[in-house]
Amino acid sequence: MTVMIFLLTIGKSTIDIQVHDSYFVLDNMSMTILIIGPFTLLVFLSRGLTRKFKTKGTNIGLIIGLLLVALITYQIVQLQESYLSEIMKLDDEGLLDIGQLAQIAVDIKRKINWTWGLFGLWTLGFLLLTFRTIKIWKKGYSS
Question: Where are the alpha helices (DSSP H) in 52-97?
Answer without folding.
Answer: 56-92
